[in-house]
Design brief:
Blueprint: E1 7-14, H1 20-34, H2 39-42, E2 43-50, H3 59-66, E3 97-100, H4 111-118, H5 128-135, H6 137-146, E4 154-157, H7 165-175, E5 180-184, E6 194-196, H8 202-210, E7 216-220, E8 224-233, E9 237-246, H9 254-258, E10 263-265, H10 272-288, E11 293-302, E12 308-314, H11 324-331, H12 336-347
Parallel strand pairs: 1-2, 1-3
Antiparallel strand pairs: 4-7, 5-6, 5-7, 8-9, 8-11, 9-10, 11-12
Helix pairs in contact: 1-12
The structure holds adenosine-5'-diphosphate and magnesium ion.
Magnesium ion is lined by residues 298, 312.
Length: 348
């Protein structure tokens, strides 16, 4: 392939999200994968950094941040507020396809997907609808209930309503057994989530979740193993091997996600029947939400009963070389550079 037919991929990373740091790591591994010997013949890359305040940087400065030769913190907390000129420094004509590798709010919830759609260039991953539905735990659960996809029992709080707090607490304990997991509907990396063991701790957990989102989901907590599966495809979705994440903490909270070395087991030690059921459910649930190109679908396997429950779908899963998503595909026969090329090609 000559220079003209190489497709220029615009990798967008960082972002106004509490998962900013992990996005930088994911972008580094995608950048490396697109610049592998095989992919280099098919793709060129430009990178664009968005700092935590939402300011976009040109590709030269962004590359320096990606390559660690400029500390991205120099552009963050200490810089005064500036008028945000989105896409101002970016020549969209250079780009054939965008690759937003932004986790969490603004990156995974349909916001950046809407903006990229307006540039009239294709982008990698789910569109506005699939991204928004995949991010919002309330919308997702309501659709899954309709389709009878198995989920833990839950209670929805749609408004920040401090007047009715006593009533809300009563309703929660009438409907659900302890322990509870109280979660902001839109977050990620376990941020804003509390495990609550008794009624007197509900209020504090609600306040914590409300500090992130006005929509809250309360779930019945189960004793679980955590199984994850990767999805790729456009119209025909295919599922990877199933993996298991093992951690030593009580639940998979922020610190255990990022501050410890968790053990990932691929393939998970489960029966073939269970594996096939998980793969089938993951495809069904992605189709239900219009999630495509790539995603990671997370399940709970209840200890004792072996019941399976769908927990959530991540439309832009962690993509570092140690992340579950690329490891699941590696175990299913796709190296990370083949995987990245495939999902870019599906999206062109
Ligand atoms: N209903 C539940 N029962 C048992 N553990 C749960 C439940 N809900 C959440 N957890 C624990 O909290 C973690 C984070 O919850 P999750 O809904 O996946 O949030 P996030 O979107 O931030 O990853 C899960 O991986 C699991 O360890
Ligand atoms: Mg999760």
């Amino acid at each position: 392939m000559n220079e003209v037919s190489r497709k220029c991929v615009g990798i967008i990373f960082g972002g106004q999200s509490n998962e900013h740091a992990i996005s930088i790591e994911s972008a580094r591994s995608i950048f490396a994968a697109l610049n592998s010997e095989i992919n280099n013949k098919k793709f060129s890359t430009k990178v664009f950094y968005i700092n935590k305040k939402g300011k976009w940087f040109d590709s030269r400065k962004s590359l320096a941040i990606l390559k660690n030769s400029i500390n991205c913190l120099d552009f963050d907390e200490n810089s005064p507020f500036e008028n945000i000129k989105i896409l101002d420094e970016i020549d969209c004509n250079d780009i054939d396809i965008w690759f937003p590798i932004l986790h969490g709010s603004n990156g995974e919830d349909g916001s950046i997907q809407g903006l990229l759609k307006l540039t009239q260039k294709p982008f990698v991953g789910s569109g506005v609808l699939g991204s928004a539905l995949g991010m919002d735990k309330i919308a997702m659960k309501l659709i899954f209930s309709h389709l009878k996809i198995p989920q833990v029992n839950f209670f929805i709080i749609k408004e920040k309503n401090f007047d009715d707090l006593i009533v809300i607490c009563d309703q929660i304990v009438k409907k659900l057994n302890f322990p509870l997991f109280i979660k902001p509907a839109n977050s990620g990396s376990s941020i804003g989530i509390s495990k609550v063991m008794n009624q007197s701790d509900i209020l504090e957990a609600l306040q914590k979740a409300w500090s992130i989102d006005h929509r809250i989901i309360v779930e019945e907590g189960l004793e679980v193993r955590e199984l994850e599966v990767g999805i790729v495809g456009k119209r025909n979705l295919i599922a990877s091997e199933v993996g298991e994440v093992n951690y030593t903490s009580d639940w998979y909270d922020y610190d255990s996600k990022y501050k410890t070395n968790n053990k990932i087991t691929i393939p998970a030690n489960i029966s073939t029947q269970l594996k096939e059921m998980i793969q089938k459910l993951s495809i069904k649930s992605c189709k239900a939400l219009d999630i495509k190109i790539f995603a990671r679908v997370d399940f709970f396997l209840e200890k004792g009963t072996n019941n399976i429950y769908l927990n959530e779908i991540n439309t832009i899963p962690g993509f570092t070389s140690n992340s579950m998503f690329p490891l699941l595909w590696k175990s299913s026969g796709l190296e990370i550079d083949e995987l990245v090329a495939k999902i870019v090609e599906y999206s062109l």
